[in-house]
Amino acid sequence: MIGRLLLRDLALLMPGGRRGGALLPLLFFLAVAMIYPFAVGPDAPLLARTGGGVIWVAALLAAILPLDRLVAPDLEEGVFDQLAVRGVAEELAVAVRMLAHWISFAPLLLLAALPAAALLGLEQETLRTVLLGLLAGTPGLAAIGVLIAALTASLRGGAALAGLLLIPLSVPILIFGAGALARPDGGGLAFAAAISLLLVAVTPFAAGAAIRAARES
Amino acid sequence: MQAMLAARDLACRRGERLLFRGLSLSLSPGEACHLAGPNGIGKTSLIRILAGLLRPFHGSVECRASIALLDERHALDPQVPLECALAFWSELDGSGTSLMDAHRERLGLVALADVPVRYLSTGQRKRAALARLLGQRAPVWLLDEPLNGLDTAGTELVETLIAEHRAAGGTCVVASHQPIRLAEAMRLEIADFAA
C-alpha cells in the first residue's frame, strides 16, 4: 500500500508529472544563480567567495515554488478523507508525500548546482561543501515544505503565506548548511543533517494533525 | 441482530452553532436510513461524523464494519485519465480488474477510460465515484447527495445499486434533499433534532 501511495505521489510531483510545473523550481534556481553575477559585476574572486551562499539562498527560494501543489489539491479533492475511511493514517500519507517531494526535487537540485557553480566560478572544494550541505539540508527543506503546505492548505491565500513561513523556518538549515562554507571542519554539515533528521521525524505527526484540524474548519 | 452502525446521542457543533443534538441511530445488515432535511440542517456533518472524519460535539459512533464514503468530493485526480484515477483506488482496495471492468460497464464509463477526469461532466464524475464506491466492497455505505448531477437513468441505477447492496447484507445511510426510493428505509428528519 505504501508503494502504491508513493507511486501516485511521484506520478503527480515528478518533473513531467501530472500536477505540472515540477521543473519550475529548478529553472528558478538556475535563474537566480545566473542573475547574481550580473548584479555584482565581473569580480571573479568575489563571486567565488560568495557564490556558495548564493546557491543556498537560491535553493531556499526555489523550495517555495512547489508548496501549493503538495497538500492543498488532495485536501480539496477529498483524497485524505477517502484514505482515512480506508484506515490509512494521515501521518503515513504525509510521510510518503514528504519522501516523494524530496525525490522529485532534491536530486535534480544537486545536479543543477553543478552548472550554477560553474556560472559563479566556485572552487572545487567549495562546490563539494555546497553539495554535501544540500544533501544534508534538502530532507529538512522537504519536511518543512510539506509541513507548511499542510498547515496552510485550508487557508485562503495560503500559497503566499506558505512562502513567507518557509523562510524563517529554514534559517537553521541555512545557517549550518551554508555556515559549513566558512568553517570547513564538517561540524556545520553534521548540524544541518541533525536538524533535517529532526524535521523529518516531526513533520508526519505535525502535518497529519494539521490535515485533521483542517477537516473541522 | 447486532447493529452494524450505531450512533448514540450525537450532537454536532459547527462554529458557534449547534446543528442538532440527541440524535441516535442504529442500523443492522440490510437496513437503510434516509437523512432528510433542507440545506444547512447538518446532513453532511452527520455523514462525516458517522465516517469518523468529524468529531461529534457529544455522543459516540460505533461501526463494526468497513466504511465506504461517497460525497461531493470524488477524490479522482483531475489531470489523470479516468482509468488511472480509478485504478489507484481499486489497487488500494484490492478489487480485481475483472470486477472493476464489470462496474465500469454497468455505470457506462467504458468509453470514457482515456478521458482525463477534469473533462468529465458532473454526472460522469458522480458515476466514476460510484465505481470507486462499488470497488471498495465495504458493508457500510455513507452516501452524501448521491443523486446530485445524475440523470433519470442514473438515479434509477443508484436506487438499484443500493437495493442490491442491502440484499447482500450491507447497510446504507443516504443523505439527500431529493426524493429517493429506498424500500423499507427509515427516514430521519434532522430538523426533529435541531437544537
> What does the average pLDDT of chain A come to?
90
Q: Can you count the helices of chain A?
A: 11
Helix and strand sequence of chain B? EEEHEEHHHEHEE
Number of strands of chain B: 8
Our measurement of the CA-to-CA distance between the termini of chain B, rounded to an integer number of angstroms, reads 31 Å
- The portion of residues forming beta strands of chain B comes to 25-35%
Highest-level CATH class of the largest domain in chain B:
Alpha Beta
Task: Report on this structure.
The complex is a heterodimer of chains A (217) and B (195). Chain A is an all-alpha fold. Chain A has one domain. Chain A has eleven helices and no strands. The two termini of chain A are 29 Å apart. Chain B is α/β, with parallel strands linked by helices. Chain B folds into two domains: 122 residues, 3-Layer(aba) Sandwich (Rossmann fold), CATH 3.40.50; 60 residues, no CATH class. Chain B contains five helices and eight strands; from the N terminus they run E-E-E-H-E-E-H-H-H-E-H-E-E. Chain B has a five-stranded parallel β-sheet with strand order 5-6-7-3-8, with helices on both faces. A three-stranded antiparallel β-sheet of chain B has the order 2-1-4, with helices on one face. In chain B, helix 2 packs parallel to helix 4 and helix 3 packs antiparallel against helix 4. Chain B is globular and about 50 Å long. The two termini of chain B are 31 Å apart. The model of chain B has no long low-confidence stretch (mean pLDDT 89).
